[in-house]
What we know:
This protein is an alpha+beta fold. It is built from 9 helices and 13 strands. A hairpin with a 6-residue loop joins strand 2 (about 30) and strand 3 (about 40).
Amino acid sequence: xxxxIGEFSSLLGISRDTLRLYEKHDIVKPMKDENNNYRxxxxxxxxxxxxxxxxxxxxxxxxxxxxxIKESPLEMILDSVEExxxxxxxxxxxxxxxxxxxxxxxxxxxxxxxxxxxxKLKGRPGLYRxxxxxxNNLLDTKGTEGVINTxxxxxxxxxxxxxxxxxxxxxxxxxxxxxxxxxxxxxDVRLLDIELEEGILEYIPxxxxxxxxxxxxxxxxxxxxxxxxxxxxxxxxxxxxxxxxTGRLMLTEKRDGAKRSxxxxxxxxx
Length: 270
């Protein structure tokens, strides 16, 4: 029996636009009446259409579905099912990681004010970082666009981080030289199976650190006095600075027109 497009789409419970899309991929091939230019579908088209929709419900790409309708030995069907299964498993893995990241962030936000200016020892993982600023001034990063794009694609696992060289931090100078840049931990690089371009990213080795959360000052650049309470804690606990200091932008809050940022400072110690 033959059906016009409206009747056929209604009987199958699909839209006309969907039917036209499947027709475009040669999944169904209606017969054209030369007298009135109407296209008519038959019962075999219905079977192919329903089989195609079943394949799509398994998240098999439409172009692969079209191939399966044309020719589908069991081996080809199994390959498509396994590929869809693998992609879904990867999506679940990444969604599970993202859920963990959201849980971590919620916990940080809940305790951020209570932990303000509180010093504690904490492990810092190895970090891969690209410097993008001198203090708050953007640098010319021409030639590193590929690495920056890769790091941006992996938000929220990447974060903004500054670095202060050990020699600068322990000097008598009141000012601090630092630069911000996109950063990712080597643990997340491994978990996400990311390939990073060598020679552009700087590596900061893992370390035990004295950690504290601060509110960034209103001044354009912050100076060593902002971290004096941590320097005092180092002396009290008889700890020595063992490497470059890093600071992670945790989040920025805007309230009553005022903006303030929470930073986690990590000072490697021994």
